[in-house]
Amino acid sequence: MRVTRAEDIEAAILKAKNSRKPFIIDAVVNSGELSLPPHIGWKEVIGFGTSKLKEVGQVINGDKKQWENLKKELESYFD
Fold first, then answer.
1. Which domain of life is it from (predicted)?
2. Long-range pairs for 63-72 at CB < 8 Å and ≥24 separation?
């Protein structure tokens, strides 16, 4: 089942749970959307922060592709 809108994901999950056969949910997401586990430790926080600083450094050095990724990520925060 293909899901393109966030409000449709619950119905897809219920359908998957009720299926007697293997079920695939093809969820289309914003490439800038963050995917994080529900609980993270300090090691993950530091690694994530370091990664984001590196991305910003790439943008400052003129990486246009990274700039597009960063813009998509920022847009996803405000959708």
1. Bacteria
2. 69/31, 69/32, 70/32, 71/32, 72/30, 72/31, 72/32
